[in-house]
Amino acid sequence: MERIENAGLPAIEIYYEPRSALLAEAVGYGIEEEGLPSRLIAGIATYEEAYELTRQAGLGVAVMVKENRAAVFTRQLKEQKPLFEITITKMEEAKSIGKNAARIVKRKPFIDLDR
After folding, report:
1. What is the domain range of residue 28?
2. Which of 38, 29, 44 minimizes the C-alpha distance to 5?
3. What percentage of residues in the chain have a pLDDT greater than 90?
4. What is the CATH number of the domain that holds 89?
5. Would you tell me the crossing angle of helices 21-33 and 91-106 to the nearest 10 degrees?
6. How confident is the prediction for the chain on average, in pLDDT?
7. What is the pLDDT of residues 62-99, one digit of tens each?
8. Which of 1, 6, 15, 113 could form a cystine bridge with 37, CB 3.0-4.6 A?
9. Residues with Cβ < 8 Å from 74, sequence gap 6 or more?
C-alpha cells in the first residue's frame, strides 16, 4: 500500500521496499526536520528510473531505500548514478540522509553522518 504525505505539494520522493519502511520513514523525518515535504512510495526503481524521476517537475531529489542502504539522486547530476549511497547502521543515519537530501534543495552544506 502506498502512503503519501503532503499530497499535492512538490516533495522529495522516497522509494522503498516494504521491509525497509522504518528506514524510509526515518529518512522522511530528516527531510521534515529541514522543513521540506516528503512522499513515501512503496516500490524500488532502478538507478536510471530514479534519476529520470528527479528530472520531472518537483524538487529534483529522490531517495531510494533498500534493505539497509539509501541512495540519493538529484537532477543536477549528469550521470544516472546516485550523488551518494550509504549503508545505514542506525536510525539516526537514516535521518541524516534525509536532512542531506533536503539540503540539496535548500543549497546548504551537507551535515556529517555520525559514524
Report:
1. 12-106
2. 38
3. 64
4. 3.40.50.10150
5. 40
6. 87
7. 999 998 999 999 998 888 889 999 999 999 999 999 99
8. 6
9. 54, 60, 61, 62, 83, 104
